[in-house]
Design a protein that fits this description.
- The complex is a heterotrimer.
- Chain A is α/β, with parallel strands linked by helices.
- Helix content of chain A is 35%, strand content 13%.
- Chain A has one domain.
- In chain A, strands 2-1-3-4-8 form a five-stranded mixed β-sheet, with helices on both faces. A three-stranded antiparallel β-sheet of chain A has the order 5-6-7.
- The longest helix of chain A is centred in the C-terminal third of the chain and has 16 residues.
- Chain B has one domain.
- Helices cover 29% and strands 22% of the residues of chain B.
- Chain B has an eight-stranded mixed β-sheet with strand order 3-2-6-7-8-9-1-10, with helices on both faces. In chain B, strands 5-4-12-11 form a four-stranded antiparallel β-sheet, with no helix packed on it.
- Chain B is built from eleven helices and twelve strands.
- The termini of chain B are far apart.
- Chain C has one domain.
- Classes of the chains: A alpha/beta, B alpha+beta, C mainly beta.
- Chains in contact: A-B, A-C, B-C.
C-alpha cells in the first residue's frame, strides 16, 4: 500500500535540492473528489500531491508538452522533470524514450503501482453512485471507498474500474527511478483483450452496425488525439488544424497542402480520422485508455487500439513499451516473422 | 396557458404533433441525446450530452453548391436548410437560456439566413430541474434558474404522476393546442404544488460563481494575469468544452470539392473552436493566442466579459458541461473565481 | 427573404501585374465584378478572396 507521505516527501526533497525542474503529479481538483494534473515548481507545493482511484490521467502527455515548450522557446532542458507514473503511464514513457522524444536523463520517473486494483471509470462510477456526489475516493484492498453526503460507500473495485485496468497485465511501473507500492504483476481480473474479444464475437454485420453508429456520433473534438502522449506530431496527417505555419512557409506550400479529410464531422471523414489514428498507434499504444476516457460521446476508441495491439502480439509477440532498448514494432523485423516479403 | 398533463398522456401529446418532428432525450451507448421520438417519451434524463443547439446551428451546414467549367464563370446554387418543424422535448432551462443568446449572435448587425431558417421552425419544450441534473450545475450564478422560461416555448414541471405544463410563447400555445384533449385544467392544489416544486428547485444548493456581476470588470482587469497560464497548464487543447457548450457558436467555412472536371463542390460551414491551436493562426505564421492560457482566457472572457459588454448578459448559462466533460479538470467556476479573487 | 451574407460576389481577374518578383512575389490582381454589384465594407473590415477548388486568402481593404 502506497503511503502518500513518502511520495510527497520525495517530491519536496527533489524540488528543494533542485534535482528536478518540476514534479508532475496529481492533486485534488475543484469538482468534487476527482484528481487533476498538478505541476509543482516549489517544494512547499509537495503537500498538494494526492494518490487515489481517481488518478486516471496519463501524465506523460505533459512531458511531451514540456518538450514542445522548450523547443518553442529555444531552451535547453537542464534538470529533469519528475513525473508520477502508473504501470501504463510508465510504458508510455518507455515508448517515448524508444522514439527518442527525450532522453532518459530528462525524466525522473516516480512509479506508483496500482497494486491490487486500478483507477475508476467515471461513467461506471456514476451509474453505481446513482446521483449521489462523492467528496473522496480511497483504495482499500479489493474495494474502493467513496465518501458521500449519505455516508461511506464501499464498492468492489472491479465493478467500477476502467476496462483497461481489468485487463491490465502490468500494473507495476517497471521503468522507474523510484517506485511506491507492491509489484502485483499478473493480477489481471479479466483476460487480456477481453473487451475486444467480446466485441469481435459478434458477426461482421453487427460489428459494422455498431461501428457505423459510433463513427456517426464522433464530433471530431480531437480529445482522443489531444490527450494521447503518442500523438505528438506537430502536423497531424488527418486534419488541417495543426498545420504548422511559419514565416518561412510559402504560399505554394499552404495552397498545395493535401487535405486528407474534410472538416465536416461526417461518417466517411470520422472513419478516416479514427482509423488512421489507430494505425499510427500500432505498437506504440500502451493501453492507458485516455482516448476512451476523454471521448465525450463514448466512442469505444480503445477497441481500435487494442485490436492493433493484439495483432502485434499474435503476429510478432510484440509488447509495446516493454523496454527502452527493445525494438519498435514497425522499425524492426525478425527472421521468424510470418510475412514472406521481409526475407 | 397553464394545463395539467397526466404522465400517461405524454405520448398522446407527442403523437398529436403530426406537423412536427418530435425530438426527445433518449439514451444510446450510455449517452443522452435528442433523438426523433420512436416509441414512448421518457423524460427521466439528467441532461443531454449535447445541448439542443444543433437544431438551429448544426455542426455542418451547406451554404451553396458551385460548379465551374474551365474558362467559364462559376455557377452558384444557394442551398437553404430544408429542416422539418421540430418540437424538442426535455430541454433543460439552462439550455433554453442558450437560445436567445444564440439568436443575438446570429442577428446582431447582420442576419444569418441559415440559422434563422432553422430557428423559426424549432419549438423548445422545457423541463424544470426539480433537482440539479449535474453536480456542476450553476445556473443560479449566471442569472438563470432551474425553472427559468427564458428561451423556452413551453415549461413542464414534474409533479409526480403528472406534469404542470405552462405555455411561454405563442408557439408554445400552438403546440399545446394541437392536443387540447390530452390536457386538463390545473386545480388550486396543482398551482400550489408547482409553486412548491419551483421554490424547492431554486433552493437546491448549487456550485457558485462568486459575485458574478463583478466578473466582467474583474476579468477585464486581469487580461495580463499570469493566472491564465497557470490555470490552463493542464489544458490539452481539445474541443470538448466548446463543442458541447449551448452558446459557443464559432464556425469555419470550407469548400469541399467533389469533382474536378467540371469543378464541383459545396461551401460548407462547420463548428470551429477557440481552443484549437489554429483558430487564430495567421497566414504569416504568427499566432496571437499562442498558448493554452490565452485560449482559456478567450473562452472564459467571452462567456463572462466580452458578451456581457456587448449584450448586457453573461453568455454562460451554467449548464456545467464544460466542467463535467473536461478530461483534465479545467473548471470554469474555479477559473472565474480564482481570476476574480486575484484581480487588481 | 433577407440578403444572404454567405453568398459571395463573383469577379473576373482582368489582369495580374508583377510588382515584386521572386519567392515572395507581390502581385496586383485587377478584378471586375461579374454580377454588377460590389460589396460594401466598414472601416477595419477585411475580405475573404477565394478561388473555387484552389483555396482562399484573407485580404485587408484599403479605400
Amino acid at each position: 500500500m502506497i503511503n502518500l507521505k513518502d511520495v510527497r516527501d520525495a517530491a519536496r526533497d527533489m524540488l528543494a535540492k533542485g534535482e528536478v525542474r518540476a514534479v508532475i503529479g496529481y492533486r485534488r481538483g475543484s469538482r468534487g473528489m476527482f484528481a487533476e494534473p498538478a505541476f509543482l515548481d516549489r517544494p512547499e507545493e509537495a503537500d498538494e500531491l494526492v494518490w487515489d482511484p481517481t488518478c486516471f490521467h496519463n501524465l506523460s502527455l505533459y512531458l511531451v508538452h514540456d518538450r514542445k515548450h522548450l523547443a518553442h522557446a529555444g531552451k535547453k532542458s537542464g534538470a529533469p522533470v519528475a513525473i508520477v507514473a502508473k504501470g501504463c503511464d510508465a510504458r508510455s514513457i518507455v515508448v517515448l524514450l524508444q522514439e527518442h522524444y527525450f532522453g532518459r536523463d530528462d525524466v525522473y520517473i516516480i512509479g506508483v503501482s496500482c497494486e491490487g486494483t486500478g483507477v475508476v471509470d467515471e461513467r461506471k462510477l456514476a451509474r453505481h453512485l446513482n446521483g449521489a456526489q462523492a467528496s473522496n475516493a480511497a483504495f482499500d484492498g479489493d474495494d474502493f471507498v467513496f465518501t458521500t453526503a449519505q455516508g461511506e460507500k464501499r464498492l468492489p473495485a472491479r465493478e467500477v474500474m476502467a476496462d483497461r485496468c481489468l485487463e491490465c497485465r502490468n500494473p507495476f511501473p517497471k521503468e522507474h527511478n523510484l517506485v511506491y507500492g507492491e509489484d502485483k504483476t499478473g493480477r489481471q481480473l479479466e483476460a487480456p483483450f477481453a473487451a475486444l474479444d467480446r466485441f469481435e464475437a459478434q458477426g461482421a454485420g453487427e460489428r459494422w452496425e455498431n461501428w457505423a453508429r459510433h463513427f456517426d456520433r464522433c464530433i471530431r473534438c480531437f480529445a482522443c488525439r489531444s490527450v494521447c502522449p503518442m500523438c505528438y506530431c506537430d502536423e497531424c496527417v488527418v486534419d488541417s488544424i495543426t498545420f504548422p505555419i511559419s514565416t518561412e512557409t510559402t504560399a505554394d506550400e499552404k495552397a498545395n497542402r493535401i487535405r486528407w479529410i474534410e472538416r465536416s464531422a461526417a461518417r466517411s471523414e470520422n472513419i478516416t480520422y479514427l482509423m488512421t489514428r489507430a494505425m499510427h498507434l500500432a505498437g506504440r499504444c500502451t493501453d492507458c485508455g485516455e482516448c476512451d476516457r476523454a471521448c465525450p460521446v463514448n466512442v469505444p476508441i480503445r477497441l481500435l487500439n487494442t485490436k492493433m495491439e493484439k495483432e502485434a502480439r499474435d503476429q510478432f509477440g510484440f509488447e509495446p513499451g516493454a523496454s527502452i532498448g527493445g525494438p519498435s514494432l514497425v522499425a524492426s523485423f525478425l527472421d521468424k516473422d510470418p510475412g514472406e516479403f521481409i526475407r | 396557458m397553464e394545463k395539467i398533463l397526466d404522465k400517461k398522456r405524454l405520448d398522446d401529446w407527442a403523437a398529436a404533433l403530426t406537423n412536427y418532428e418530435v425530438q426527445a432525450p433518449s439514451q444510446e451507448d450510455g449517452i443522452w441525446g435528442f433523438q426523433p421520438v420512436n416509441g414512448p417519451v421518457r423524460l427521466d434524463h439528467t441532461n443531454t450530452k449535447q445541448p439542443p443547439k444543433e437544431f438551429a446551428f448544426p455542426q455542418r451546414e451547406v451554404f451553396f453548391t458551385f460548379e465551374q467549367i474551365k474558362g467559364e464563370a462559376p455557377r452558384l446554387t444557394q442551398v437553404l436548410p430544408q429542416a422539418p418543424r421540430h418540437a424538442v422535448f426535455g430541454v433543460r432551462p439552462c439550455d433554453g437560456r442558450g437560445v436567445p443568446r444564440m439568436d443575438k449572435v446570429f442577428n446582431d448587425h447582420v442576419e444569418d439566413t441559415y440559422y434563422n431558417t432553422r430557428r423559426k421552425n424549432v419549438a423548445y419544450v422545457g423541463l424544470a430541474c426539480n433537482k440539479p441534473p449535474s453536480a456542476n450545475c450553476f445556473c443560479l450564478s449566471v442569472g438563470g434558474s432551474p425553472v427559468s422560461t427564458d428561451g423556452l416555448d413551453v415549461l413542464m414541471t414534474d409533479l409526480g404522476d403528472r406534469y404542470f405544463v405552462a405555455a411561454v410563447t405563442d408557439a408554445g400555445k400552438a403546440l399545446m393546442a394541437e392536443a387540447a384533449k390530452v390536457f386538463s385544467e390545473p386545480s388550486a392544489t396543482d398551482q400550489k404544488q408547482v409553486k412548491q416544486a419551483h421554490a424547492a428547485a431554486v433552493a437546491h444548493p448549487q456550485r457558485a460563481v462568486n459575485n458574478p456581476d463583478q466578473a466582467p470588470a474583474k476579468l477585464k482587469a486581469s487580461f495580463k494575469s499570469p493566472l491564465w497560464d497557470e490555470l490552463a497548464r493542464a489544458c490539452i487543447g481539445c474541443g470538448i468544452c466548446t463543442f458541447l457548450c449551448p452558446t459557443c457558436h464559432c464556425f469555419d467555412i470550407n469548400d469541399e470539392v467533389h469533382g474536378k472536371a467540371p469543378l464541383k463542390g459545396q461551401r460548407v460551414r462547420t463548428w470551429d473552436n477557440c481552443q484549437f491551436p489554429d483558430f487564430t493562426m495567421h497566414s504569416s505564421g504568427h499566432n496571437p493566442r499562442e498558448g493554452t492560457g490565452a485560449r482559456l482566457r478567450q473562452r472564459v472572457g467571452h462567456k463572462f466579459q466580452y458578451f456581457y459588454e456587448n449584450f448586457g448578459m453573461h453568455q454562460c448559462v451554467g449548464c456545467g458541461r464544460c466542467i463535467t466533460e473536461c478530461p483534465v479538470g479545467i473548471d470554469i467556476i474555479n477559473v472565474v473565481n480564482k481570476v476574480a479573487e486575484n484581480a487588481a | 427573404m433577407p440578403h444572404n451574407i454567405y453568398l459571395p460576389n463573383l469577379a473576373r481577374v482582368i489582369y495580374i501585374k508583377d510588382e515584386v518578383p521572386g519567392e515572395r512575389a507581390i502581385r496586383t490582381f485587377h478584378l471586375e465584378p461579374l454580377d454588377g454589384g460590389w460589396f460594401d465594407h466598414e472601416c477595419g473590415q477585411c475580405a475573404m478572396l477565394s478561388v473555387f477548388g484552389r483555396g482562399e486568402a484573407l485580404i485587408s481593404i484599403a479605400s
